[in-house]
Amino acid sequence: MKQVDRDKGVARSKSRQTLSEELETNIKLRDNKHSLFNVLDQVMNLIGDVRGKVAVMVDDMIDTAGTITKGAELLHAEGAREVYACCTHAVFSPPAVKRLSSGLFQEVIVTNTLPVPERNSFRQLTVLSTANLLGETIWRVYDDCSVSCIFQ
To answer: Membrane-crossing residues (predicted)?
Structure first.
């Protein structure tokens, strides 16, 4: 399995390394450039070999799904066996649902930090609840306990 991330921020490198170690795999990065209005100009490159591998794309949000779709197209073109998309915030502005349900993704996994209306539902979509995580966090803050153990 290969985890693929669209950003190259230094702040994220530690969490990527931790994820890479937990999955016992290498991390492959896909660089991109955006123009105004969140339109993807180009996918610059894919670092590493994904032939025959399962690729997991992770992002903070999916808005129009342009970037993540272009990335999935690249991964499939480079021989990825399956491509999964994961994000925290499912904005799903048009034409996101059309792009995400086009068959490029084995599964699209999001959280319910934003409501996902029924009209934006599609076969590959899995929505995970954040209720327990938020409830536990609120309880720990109220009780003056550490919240860091939740994320270990």
So the answer is: none
Residue in 100, 93, 109 with CA at minimum distance from that of residue 69: 100
- Domain map of the chain by residue range? 2-151
Sign for the CA dihedral angle at 34, 36, 40, 44 comes to negative
How do residues 54-93 score in pLDDT, each as one tens digit? Answer: 999 999 999 999 989 999 999 999 999 999 999 999 999 9
User: Bridge-partner residues for 28, per DSSP?
Assistant: 4
What is the DSSP annotation of 15-67? HHHHHHHHHTS-EEEEEEEE-GGG-EEEEEEE-S--TT-EEEEEEEEESS-HH
Could you give the 3-state DSSP secondary structure of residue 98? helix
Q: How would CATH label the architecture of 2-151?
A: 3-Layer(aba) Sandwich (3.40)
**What CA–CA distance (Å, rounded) separates 76 from 73?**
5
**What's the whole-number average pLDDT of the chain?**
83
Q: Which two tokens stand for residue 137?
A: 């966090």
Report the SS3 class of residue 5: strand
